[in-house]
Each structure stands twice: as structure tokens, then as C-alpha cells.
Amino acid sequence: MFAVHLLSFYFSKLQEDQIKKVDRYLYAMRLSDDQLADISARFRQEMEKGLSNESNATAAVKMLPTHVYSTPDGSEKGEFLALDLGGSKFKVLQVKVSEDRKGKVQMESETFPIPEEFLNGRGTELFEHVAESLKSFLRKHHINHTRKALGFTFSFPCAQSKIDEGVLLSWSKNFKARGVQGNNVVQLLRKAIQKVGDVDVDVLAMVNDTVGAMMTCGYDDQNCEVGVIIGTGTNACYIEEMRHIDLVEGDEGRMCINTEWGAFGDDGVLDDFITSFDREIDAASINPGKQLFEKMVSGMYMGELVRLILLKMAKKGLLFRGQVSDALRTKGTFQTKHICLIEQYKGGLENTKEILEDLGLNPSEDDCIAVQHVCTIVSFRSANLVAAALAAILTRIRENKKLKTLRTTVGVDGTVYRTHPQYPKRLHKVVRHLVPDCHVRFVLSESGSAKGAAMVTAVAQRLASQRKEIDDTLAAFALSPTQLQEVKAKMRVELERGLKKDSHPTASVKMLPTYVYRTPDGTERGKYLALDLGGTNFRVLVVKIRTGMRNSVRMYNKIYAIPLEIMQGTGEELFDHIVQCISDFLDYMGMKNTRLPLGFTFSFPCNQTGIDKGDLVCWTKGFKATECEGYDVVDMLREAIKRRNEFDLDIVAIVNDTVGTMMTCAYEDPKCQIGLIAGTGSNVCYMEEMKNIEFVEGDEGQMCVNTEWGGFGANDNIEDIRTRYDREVDGGSLNPGKQRFEKMTSGMYLGEIVRRILIDLTKHGLLFRGRITERLKTKGIFETKFLSQIESFSTILKDTVRELAPNCKVDFILSEDGSGKGAALITAVAQQHYTDKQEPH
Ligand code: BG6
Ligand code: GLC
Ligand code: GLC
């Protein structure tokens, strides 16, 4: 009994000595709590540097946007292919995700070796090897009957501007193929697949393995918002607030960021923690100076670190009685998998002995204990470093969410985490110690990154098919140059039909004479009253024009609302209301007793037989007052003035708004001979040769024609470009079947067209999560002004006119002063005309 006790005391004393010796020798690798907190704080700063626009370019930790916006929500379904390249194994997989979530993911996978020459050869060959492997997988599993969506796990730092694109920033780990850095790897893969042939796949998404791991775990645990890899390489991703991601537009929502923490320290911030062994590893690597954190942490380097330490200790006589073997001198002979065996709870020491003997060494019991402890220090340092960086991420998430304590899940993967007997336990413990305010659940990503990649692909596929559905819905609105040429030709035909005597009465484009024979010449003068009715606003104006000097027009105006019940009441009510507004205006101006000549801008189609006579052909836009159509609106106005019996006016001219606009602009620019309204309604007027206006007497000179082109289409000749939304809007309007062109072009209808599209897309689940609100159901709720707030399209008109009428050089002038000024000018011109006719020459 006593003897046994003594013996075990002797052994533990001996063990203690060995451990102390190693501890002393590797003191620089043993990190205290304070040091870990310090490293964690440094990583916090590095993350911020990477996220910010100003410092990203020089940041070591790149913080790459992944364009993955959410973890799986259970709606993912379908059959996907996945490629998993960049870890210790290259795999091709098939992932079947069924609709009813939980546990319903089936996977088949096959590992393909990648011969050394592909890692270091030409990139195209590497990708062709990948494509060949995919092809043979498809053959073997008889998968080629339908086109499959493919998700590509590519475990290297890539700049992504969308989910199916990734420009390789630099190789890491043991990859070094030429001609890949700086290129879009998705494109390289697609090309290789095409070259190999017979593989019917769509590469829809590219993800980093960290993202794959997070998504894999996220499928089972919705709280998972961090993915960590501790394998051949090391890295982490997490869900960041969009507003903190300078590199991506938009502030709403969240996006997964691939930190690429392996590069932590590449700018020198970890120099005081980097040992001479780390330097040696780095110098002998394929990427010296790069991935310094990774080289202290990950599976590709830990074994080699241990070998270098053992070699040095042996040379110093601290191990193996100073004996060194050839194998121990050879790079790569001692691997991370050996560390895992050596640190096994049971049998660890025996494993140590075996492994060392395999290296041609002859270890004593002491040596084995010491070597085991070297392994522990190296792997523990790795876990400590990962814990420090992870603590920084967790703290950031906690602060982003403004929480006192964070509850979250971290998905972890990688051979080190998976196979090292003590690593997970140590890592968890240190993390909990470093960030006690974060309650972390660690989940091993059992099925690797590919399942997660399939989830991302499912989302990408859904988005792509939604995009396609949206594109298909909207395709009918995109008019090709040929279609536009056709519209132009048809409009030309209709204009001519409107001008010809026999076709004029039935023409869809009415081509109404205006009795305006010329544009202003600058000799106009006087003081006029003008009305402007039919656009968004009703206005009453006084316009003073002074002779001789151009630009010397002064205007005073007041805007009045016309209530809906008046727009759609009786004609008498409408004109009484107008006269009441005039009365108010004259009071306001103190002009009740001056009998001014009046120009009446009335923006509806009128059959004119003189400048001051106009029978309303039909209401358009939002007006529908009864007992007006077919009557002379000038008479109606006169009668309303009489009814009021308060003031008198001399109504000289009735003017369409297009004509008013042309006159307003022509006053500034005599070349102006077209007036266009793109407002509540749509219409154009222009100066035509009298001889072409067959239904008006006289062949000399010109007259302005109000085309009323809004009516274009009434004879069904543009049905090919009308969409179902145009028909719906028409059907719900005050004048179904009429003004079809206007309903496709003007402000009164565009918002409504958009609203109907939005409803339709929502019905198909393509917008607003399929929820149609009551407000969206309200007619007119989506105003045309929203269109201009959302997008700017001011040059489209000019550009298209230039394309369709290449022989016409057109200047567009905005009529700043509206049509009222033009109405006054017409009144002035009309008065002159009248006087000219009265006075003998
Ligand atoms: C696997 C993933 O599970 O983990 C790989 O599917 C990833 O894509 C790997 O690269 C990381 O571990 P290792 O040890 O294989 O590099
Ligand atoms: C390397 C890669 C990184 C990857 C990690 C783990 O650090 O640069 O993208 O996530 O290895 O495989
Ligand atoms: C409607 C009217 C027309 C007017 C146009 C612009 O199309 O019918 O007369 O010019 O709207 O306001």
C-alpha cells in the first residue's frame, strides 16, 4: 500500500517537472486572462476598421459582405447540388430539403481527391477538375434529368457584390492555383462546367464555409447568428446590422459578414504575441506575412508548430536526450491529427510514444509527458485565441442589439473542433469566461457547410424565380424600338385621318382647330384675366403684358380647389363654382369693376368654330359634370356670370392647355411650334399648314391644331401594347374605352397602374410577404408623384424622341408659367387679329 503511494507520488512529481519545463520554455504561448481581453479588444477594433468605408482598403480583417440576409426560415425546399471546396476535403453533394422542416434534409456526398498539381497549377485546370468531379457524381447518382440549382461553398476570402459572384482576394491555406486571384470564381466554375459538358446546373450561390456552417446550424436553431470554422484554416462569420456595413448600400435589416479573421495580425497588431515559432511557420508557408492569426490557430499549422518546438527543444537537449531524427527535421511529418491522438484522455501517452517512435525517435516516459504538454500548450493557445476573437464578435452583436445579456448560438465546424478531444470544451469555457454577459450555445455543424449552402441556394433560387416572375409581369411595359416605330407610324396615320375631311368625324385623334393662327410676335400688350381649368389646379390670373419688351409679363394668380362633387355634379354647379372663384379673385385684387378681356384655358377637347366658341366634345380625366358635353362652354361661362350678376367679363378666347403652353414658350422662343402636356392628362398641339386642315376653310398660312392624342387607340389599333393593367385602369375610370393613350401615359393613371401591379405581385407572393393591406386596395392611394420620388425619368422622353425622329432637332422648354400666361397671349393675339380685321390697312 505504502509502496504504491510512494510510486504514484514519484510519478506525479516527475510529471510536474516535465510540465514545468515545457511551461517555462513555451511561456510566450500561454496567454493570461488579461492578454486575452487585450487581444479581444484589438479584434473589436479590427472589425470596425474592416466595416468602415475609409479604412476598409487597408484593413487586415476584411469583413466581407456575403449578401446572405437571413438564416433559414423553414421555407427553403427543393433538391440542390453543392460543391464544397477549400477545406481538408473536396466534396460534391446532393441535398434534398423537404417542405416540412425539422430533420427532413437528405444528403448524399462523395469526396474527391485534389491532386497536388491542381492546387499549384493553372486555375482553369483546378476548376475543370471540380467540374469533372461534379459530372462523375451526377452520373453515378443518375441525377442529370432536370436542371439543378447548385450552391458553391468556396472557403477563401472573396469580394461579393451579389450572392452568385465572388472575386477571390487571395488564396490561403494550401491553395495557390494561378489565374484565379482577382477573378470571379463563380464564372470560372460556370466556364469549367460548360467546357466539361453534359452537366445541367445553375450556379446560383457562392458561400464561404463559415456561412455554410452558420446556415447549417441555423436550419435547426433560429438563434444561430455566428459561424466559426476551426479546421484546415480558421474563420468566422456573423450577422451584422446593415447600417454598419459601409460597403453595401442600404441601412435596413441585417447581413452576414465573413470576417476573414485568419488575417488578424497581418498589419502587425498581434506582433507582441507572435513567437519565433510562428515566424518560422509563416516564413516557410506559401503566403508569408499573410493569415498570421490563422497560422497560430488552425489545423494546417498546429502540427507543424509542435514539430518545430520539439525539434528546437531536442536540439537544446531538453528532449530525447538531445537526439534528433530525420523525420523530425522534415516539414509536415508531425500533423494536427497527431496532436489529437496525443491529447486523448485515455491512451494519450501511449499514442505519444507510438507517434514519436514512428518519427524515428526513442522517447522516454518523461519525453512523452513533455511532448504531450507541448501539444496541450499549442492547441490551448489556439482555443484561447479563437475564444478572444469570438468574444469580440459576441460583444459586438450584443451591443448592436442593445442587450444587457445576449442569448445566441454559434455554429462551429472544422476538423480541429470536430476531432480534437479537448478543444471544444476548452473553447466554450474560455468564451464563457471572457464574455459572461453572453449565453452562448455551441452547435457542431454535423453535416458540414454544404447543407447551409443548399439553404442559401434555395433562397437564391426563390429570389431568382421571383425576379423572373416580376420581370415577366413587367416585360409588357418595355417597348422595343420596333414597337415604338410602329406606334409612331400608327399615330402618324391617325393624325392624318383626323385632318382629312371624310375621316375627321370618326377619327380617334380628333385634330381640333383652335383658331390660333400664329404664335406671339412680341407686339402683344394689355391687361388680361385668365382662367386655367382642367389640370391639377384651377387658377384665376391677371396677366399684364407690356409692349415691345419681351419678358415683361407680370402675373398675379390664386389657386382654387374644385371639390370632387362639383367636378362630377351638374354643369351649372360647376360653372357657378368657377364664377364664384373669379368673384373672389376680383375682390382680392380689387378689380370687380374693370371689365377685362378674358382668356379661358379649358383643358378638354372642344369643337371650335371660332377663337371664342367651343363645344365640349367629351369630358376627360377626372371631370364628369352633367349637361356640358355638346354645349359651348363659353356660353355656359357667360350664363353663369349673368346668373351671378356681380361683374362682367369679355370672354375673348377659349384655349386648350397645350395651346396655352405653346404660346407661353413661344413668347420666349419664337421657334416654338409645339405644345405638349404631360400632366394629369396627355395631349399635344402644333402649328399645321392651313391647306392640310381640310375641314377648315382657307388654304393660306397656318393654324394651331389641338390633336387630342389622348384619344389615340379608341379604334383598337394599340391593343398589342396595352397590358392587362392598362385595361383594368381603363375599366375603373370615368370614361371606359376612351382616352386609351392618355391612360397609358398621364399622371392621372400612372400611379394607379403601379398600384395594380403592386397588388398583383403581392397576390403572387412576390412583394410584401404576400400581404395586401387595406390601404393598398384603395383606388388612387398610390399617387403618380411617388413615381418621380422613387425614380427620375426626365431624360427618357428626350432620348426617345431623338431616336425616333433623328431628322428633327428638338429643344424642350419647360413652360414655367403654365398655360394661363399663354391664354392671355392668345387673347391679346385674338384681339389684335380682330382689330386688324376691323381696321382697313
Ligand atoms: C467542413 C465544411 O465541414 O468544414 C468545409 O464542409 C470546411 O467546407 C470545413 O472548409 C472546415 O474544416 P476543414 O478542417 O475540413 O478545413
Ligand atoms: C481560410 C479562408 C477562409 C475560410 C477559412 C476556413 O481562412 O481564407 O475563407 O473560411 O480558411 O476554411
Ligand atoms: C386631356 C384633355 C386635353 C388636355 C390634356 C392635358 O387629354 O382631353 O384637352 O390637353 O388632358 O391636360
TrEMBL record:
Monomer. Interacts with TIGAR; the interaction increases hexokinase activity in a hypoxia- and HIF1A-dependent manner. GO terms for molecular function: ATP binding; D-glucose binding; fructokinase activity; glucokinase activity. Belongs to the hexokinase family. Pfam families: Hexokinase_1, Hexokinase_2. PROSITE patterns: HEXOKINASE_1, HEXOKINASE_2. Catalyzes the phosphorylation of hexose, such as D-glucose and D-fructose, to hexose 6-phosphate (D-glucose 6-phosphate and D-fructose 6-phosphate, respectively). Mediates the initial step of glycolysis by catalyzing phosphorylation of D-glucose to D-glucose 6-phosphate. Plays a key role in maintaining the integrity of the outer mitochondrial membrane by preventing the release of apoptogenic molecules from the intermembrane space and subsequent apoptosis. Its EC number is 2.7.1.1. It comes from Cyprinus carpio carpio. Keywords: Acetylation, Allosteric enzyme, ATP-binding, Cytoplasm, Glycolysis, Kinase, Membrane, Mitochondrion, Mitochondrion outer membrane, Nucleotide-binding, Repeat, Transferase. Its main location: cytoplasm. This is Hexokinase-2.
